[in-house]
């Protein structure tokens, strides 16, 4: 029997892993600059956390969760997203006791039983941030601008930032009622999903991707016409901060997002370069979520993107994230005497921060030199019986082919100064 990875999952092989590392390191660098601290939460949580947090009527909770019963009879779920878990940790560890806003970031695998396609996986890795404890529109602007600056720093351009305000429990019910009344007349013509959304989650109908639904909802009332004063002012302020920072955005009053916890600001960053699933990043404010899962009335906002989608976009642009290719030195050993000291020498090199590799297959010198080429070695160090007796090694500069004998005990300072 031949095994393959489960559908919707993928192995990340060495080359791809370098690109992932580039994405993670660039993100962490930016998060530090904006004073965010890391949090790591478990990969599974009690199912109820997501039912309450993400929302009973969302696609995620209705049909995409990996839920199982453990041997103790508990219902657990592989996390489909990070926000609910971070908020749970915030409440559980009383992080709200800190007088300053809590600014957190996370990187880790998420799981959704979706129909896999390019950029849509069943296991994917999200990089996300959450800020808890401030409803200041400046925080919305910080979070949105940080996402944009992060993608720019990675080398991505031509991104479209779409923003909207999805209102709050004061103004949303008024819009909801108008929307439901408007859509009742065309109910039978909506897609099956939207027909059931009409009672339970009508706003989602506005961003249904089905063409018939889009046509039928062309003139449907959108939330922007019904925002309360508080939400309207908040939205204006977010936009004016973005204007000040020179961050371009498109207002999309149909932008709803697939999770129920959003209030006020919602946003997505879209790339035209990665095909059908063009959304690189999504986020927004969630002022009711902390209370919903048992905490006090603490506002929050955040975003997340997946490494898989960013990697697709970067590859489209020819960015491979290779910061450091090749090894510093390849150690060619010939004969038993050389072998007897090779591990000690290799260990000394590595202890000094030199990226060193040797042959472990007992190959002849020619094959070892070929390996050095494949590994893009900057230098090759050759040790045979003759050199061993003279306490020398041959050091070859692979950029110009020059080589000379150097005393073994001087190899570390010589290489260190050459590699500077
Ligand atoms: P989301 O829109 O469900 O939001 O996902 C955010 C991002 O995760 C997407 O824009 C996409 O880059 C990536 N993503 C989602 N599903 C998949 C998938 N099946 N395969 C690959 N990538 C995927 C959230 O998860 C919210 N927790 C974001 C947030 C944080 N809102 C506030 N704070």
TrEMBL record:
Please give one Gene Ontology molecular function term for this protein: transferase activity
Q: Where in the cell is it found?
A: Cytoplasm
Superkingdom per UniProt: Bacteria
CDD domains (alphabetical): HisRS-like_core, HisRS_anticodon
Q: Which residues bind L-histidine?
A: 81-83, 112, 126, 130, 257, 261-262
Q: Which InterPro entries does the entry mention?
A: aa-tRNA-synth_II (IPR006195), aa-tRNA-synth_II/BPL/LPL (IPR045864), Anticodon-bd (IPR004154), Anticodon-bd_dom_sf (IPR036621), His-tRNA-ligase (IPR015807), HisRS-like_core (IPR041715), HisRS/HisZ (IPR004516), HisRS_anticodon (IPR033656)
* GO annotation, biological process: histidyl-tRNA aminoacylation
Q: What reaction(s) does this enzyme catalyze?
A: tRNA(His) + L-histidine + ATP = L-histidyl-tRNA(His) + AMP + diphosphate + H(+)
Q: Which UniProt keywords apply?
A: Aminoacyl-tRNA synthetase, ATP-binding, Cytoplasm, Ligase, Nucleotide-binding, Protein biosynthesis
Q: What class of enzyme is it?
A: ligase
One GO CC annotation: cytoplasm
> EC number(s) per UniProt?
6.1.1.21
Which part of the chain is the Aminoacyl-transfer RNA synthetases class-II family profile domain? 1-314
Tell me the PANTHER family matching this sequence.
Answer: HISTIDINE--TRNA LIGASE, MITOCHONDRIAL-RELATED, HISTIDYL-TRNA SYNTHETASE
Its subunit composition reads: Homodimer.
What protein name applies here? Histidine--tRNA ligase
């Amino acid at each position: 029997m031949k095994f393959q990875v489960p559908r919707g999952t993928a192995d990340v092989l060495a080359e791809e892993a370098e690109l992932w590392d580039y994405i993670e390191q660039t993100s962490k660098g930016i998060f530090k600059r904006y004073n965010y601290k890391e949090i790591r939460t478990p990969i599974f949580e009690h199912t109820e956390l997501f039912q309450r947090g993400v929302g009973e009527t969302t696609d995620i909770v209705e049909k995409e969760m990996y839920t199982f019963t453990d041997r103790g009879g508990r219902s657990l779920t592989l996390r489909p997203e990070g926000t609910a878990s971070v908020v749970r940790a915030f409440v559980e560890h009383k992080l709200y006791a800190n007088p300053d806003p809590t600014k957190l970031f996370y990187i880790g695998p998420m799981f959704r039983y979706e129909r896999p396609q390019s950029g849509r996986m069943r296991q994917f890795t999200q990089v996300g941030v959450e800020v808890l404890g401030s409803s200041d529109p400046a925080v919305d602007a910080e979070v949105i601008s940080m996402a944009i600056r992060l993608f720019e720093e990675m080398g991505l351009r031509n991104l479209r930032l779409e923003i909207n305000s999805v209102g709050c429990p004061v103004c949303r019910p008024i819009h909801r009622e108008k929307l439901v009344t408007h859509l009742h007349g065309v109910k039978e013509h909506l897609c099956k999903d939207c027909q059931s959304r009409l009672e339970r989650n009508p706003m989602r109908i506005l961003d249904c991707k089905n063409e018939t639904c889009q046509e039928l909802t062309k003139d449907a009332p959108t939330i922007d016409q019904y925002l309360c004063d508080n939400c309207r002012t908040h939205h204006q302020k977010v936009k004016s901060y973005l204007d000040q920072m020179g961050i371009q955005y498109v207002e999309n009053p149909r932008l709803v997002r697939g999770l129920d916890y959003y209030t006020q600001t919602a946003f997505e960053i879209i790339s035209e370069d990665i095909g059908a699933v063009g959304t690189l990043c999504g986020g927004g404010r969630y002022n009711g979520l902390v209370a919903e899962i048992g905490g006090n009335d603490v506002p929050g906002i955040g975003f997340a993107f997946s490494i898989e989608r960013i990697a697709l976009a970067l590859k489209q642009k020819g960015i491979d994230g290779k910061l450091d290719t090749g090894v510093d030195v390849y150690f060619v050993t010939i004969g038993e005497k050389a072998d007897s000291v090779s591990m000690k020498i290799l260990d000394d090199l590595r202890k000094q921060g030199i990226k060193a590799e040797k042959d472990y297959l007992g190959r002849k010198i020619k094959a070892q030199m070929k390996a050095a080429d494949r590994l893009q070695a900057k230098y090759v160090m050759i040790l045979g019986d003759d050199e061993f007796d003279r306490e020398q090694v041959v050091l070859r500069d692979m950029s110009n082919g020059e080589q000379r004998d150097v005393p073994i005990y001087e190899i570390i300072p010589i290489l260190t100064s050459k590699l500077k």
